[in-house]
C-alpha cells in the first residue's frame, strides 16, 4: 500500500500546530523540490557507481562531450555548466586527469589559456554513463503521465528562468 503523506506533509502539519500564523503554501512546493533534488542526485550517483565516477564528474564529462569535437573547453566554460566553485573545479579537473578521463593542455592560439579535453577513455566512460543517467531519470518520473511530465517541465522551467541569476 502506497503512503498517502510525504515528509513535507508531516513538516507542514507540525508547523501548522506550532505556528499556525505561518503561510506554508510556498514551502509545500519548495520543500518538495529540495527533497526531490537530493533524491534525484542520490539515484543518479548510484546509477553511475559502476562507471567509477561521481555525479559532479558526470557533469564535467557530459559538458565536454556535448561541446562537440574536439571536446575541449576552458575551466571557466565548464563552470558555466557545472554548479561548483572555482577551487572545487580545479580539484575535480585534477582528479579526472589522474583517472585519465580528461587531459589538460594550453590553447594552441593563446598559451595563457588552459583547456580541459576528453581523452578516448573519458569519451567511452561518458558515453556509457550518460545512457545510465538518462535511464535513471526516466525511471524516476515513470509515475507521471506524458501530460503531467510536460506540464511539470513547463512550470519548472518558468521557475528556473525567474530565479536563476
For this structure, the quaternary state is single chain
| Second-tier CATH architecture of the largest domain | Orthogonal Bundle
* CATH fold naming of the largest domain: Arc Repressor Mutant, subunit A
Shape annotation: elongated
- Number of alpha- plus pi-helical segments: 7
- Widest beta sheet: strand line-up: 1-3-2
Strand proportion: 5-15%
pLDDT averaged over residues: 92
- Rg (C-alpha, Å): 20 Å
CATH class of the largest domain: Mainly Alpha
Pfam families: MarR_2
InterPro entries: HTH_MarR-typ, WH-like_DNA-bd_sf, WH_DNA-bd_sf
GO molecular function, one term: DNA-binding transcription factor activity
Organism: Empedobacter tilapiae
Structure description:
There is one protein chain. The chain is mainly α. The chain folds into two domains: 51 residues; 85 residues, Orthogonal Bundle (Arc Repressor Mutant, subunit A). It is 65% helix and 7% strand. The protein has seven helices and three strands. It has a three-stranded antiparallel sheet. The longest helix is centred in the first third of the chain and has 24 residues. It is elongated and about 65 Å long. The N and C termini lie far apart (42 Å).
List keywords for this structure.
3-stranded antiparallel β-sheet; mainly alpha; 7% strand; 2 domains; Arc Repressor Mutant, subunit A; 165 residues
Compact description:
By secondary structure, the protein is mainly alpha-helical. Helices cover 65% and strands 7% of the residues.
SSE topology sketch:
Blueprint: H1 7-18, H2 25-48, H3 55-66, E1 72-73, H4 75-81, H5 86-98, E2 102-106, E3 114-118, H6 120-140, H7 146-163
Antiparallel strand pairs: 1-3, 2-3
Helix pairs in contact: 2-6, 3-6, 4-5
Amino acid at each position: 500500500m502506497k503512503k498517502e503523506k510525504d515528509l513535507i506533509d508531516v513538516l507542514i502539519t507540525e508547523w501548522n500546530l506550532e505556528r499556525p500564523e505561518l503561510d506554508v503554501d510556498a514551502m509545500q512546493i519548495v520543500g518538495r523540490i529540495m527533497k526531490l533534488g537530493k533524491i534525484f542526485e542520490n539515484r543518479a550517483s548510484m546509477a553511475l557507481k559502476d562507471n567509477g565516477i561521481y555525479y559532479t564528474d558526470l557533469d564535467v564529462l557530459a559538458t565536454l562531450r556535448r561541446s562537440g569535437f574536439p571536446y575541449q573547453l576552458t575551466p571557466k566554460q565548464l563552470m558555466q555548466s557545472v554548479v561548483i566553485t572555482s577551487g572545487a573545479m580545479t580539484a575535480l579537473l585534477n582528479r579526472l586527469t589522474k583517472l585519465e578521463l580528461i587531459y589538460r593542455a594550453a590553447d594552441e592560439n593563446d598559451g595563457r589559456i588552459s583547456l580541459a579535453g576528453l581523452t578516448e577513455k573519458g569519451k567511452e566512460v561518458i558515453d556509457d554513463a550518460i545512457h545510465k543517467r538518462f535511464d535513471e531519470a526516466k525511471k524516476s518520473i515513470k509515475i507521471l503521465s506524458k501530460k503531467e511530465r510536460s506540464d511539470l517541465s513547463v512550470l519548472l522551467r518558468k521557475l528556473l528562468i525567474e530565479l536563476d541569476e
